[in-house]
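User: Assemble these into one structure.

Assistant: Restating your components, then the assembled model:
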Amino acid sequence: MQSEESHLADQELLLAVDGELSPREAERVESHLAACWACRVRKQEMETAIGEFVRFERQSSDMRIPASDGPRALLKAQLAQQAEAERASWLVWPRPVSWRFGWALAAALAMATVTAFIYRSYFVYRHYFERHPTHSMAVTVPDPSLTPGATVLLSERELCRETGANNKAVPVALQRRVFDEYGIRSAEPRAYEVDYLITPALGGADDIHNLWPESSSATVWNAKVKDALEDHLRNLVCEGDLDLATAQHEIATNWIEAYKKYFHTDRPVAALRY
Amino acid sequence: MPGCPPELNAFLSGPVAQGRRVPASAAEEEVVALFDELRVPLLRYLSGFPLALPDSEDVIQEAFLALFQSLRQGKFHHNVRGWLFRAAHNLALKRKRSQSRNGPNAPASRGTEDSAIDPGPNPEDQFAFQQTQKRLASVIAALPEQYRYCLYLRAEGLRYREIAEVLDISLGSVSLYLERSLAHIARVSER
């Protein structure tokens, strides 16, 4: 039997378990373990604790992680935007500028000044309307770079078993973040309704990428019309006439086009208009 | 460890791996492929901060955008996975700091207590499992931050040297923090 002093330290055992020892040290630890029951038990306890933690970590996070489609689409949009901005900033000063090109250069600068002025005017104009949303901003289709849609992992069977998912309220804090993202700073409480792009009744997630401020002032393509489309798509999915992924994709891409397609009409059904 | 990602730089290929300035389309392709590979591990890591899911998603987007930018500038990362964990770690710390400055936010729900379901055969087993999960959750939440970060990073398959780089601590600290964290967890398992 080994003496107390010769037992392996906990850190040494952990390094061995994690394969962090040099081959020589690993060999020494292995031969000690072969001879020492006490250290073998401690090693086993350590591995049990690791197992417990990994199980806990996976269990507590994996179930809540939504599918990657929405975040992936958002990243792609942002990468494209960044690449575009980079291209636009590639304005390199030509080294040998001869007087022959002087006029062309001056003309280009004048054009740039005019463009900047127009852009600035547009910006000021847009900023004004963002601050006074009741004047113009009627958001009927979400901005795909802000709201590409996000879903939870659900099979069609699980989805159709669930009832009442449609009436899920959006938490106020999340609503505020949605308004911020869309630059709506001073919206009247009733001017907008924060709505799910992909409704929870079709597997939509409680995620900012799946929420947008739907204007209450829209008279034709309004929330009621979208609700009718959502009900119709859910029925089609649950009756097996439409694939869930297709329904989610169509509503996320352009819900108005989806309405036209599935209701075979260019205008919403009269009863749904305000 | 099951499900651990392959060795470090296996994700990068072509011009990106050679560390020269790459066209936007190639960098974009690589970054999206990495996103597919590492989004879930990063989300799991950030859940240990703890950070709410929408915040974690934002942090991850920022980290990948930063990676894209640095690849476009021709910067070479010898360990992209470690770089991304480090970027996400720093961005998450920044976000946590700004949240605490802006007053108390809604606490990031871990969802452990209510959502954990054991495949156990009977209600007694399920109850025992849920109790253990609750105890584990409170033990892990009570660990010093650095201990917790080490645990979550190790669970995602990072080696000690990588963890040391992500957290900017010594190798000795990594093994010490891990050993102490596991000792706390082992006490829960013994009960």
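Residues 92-97, 127-138 of chain A have pLDDT under 50 and may be disordered.
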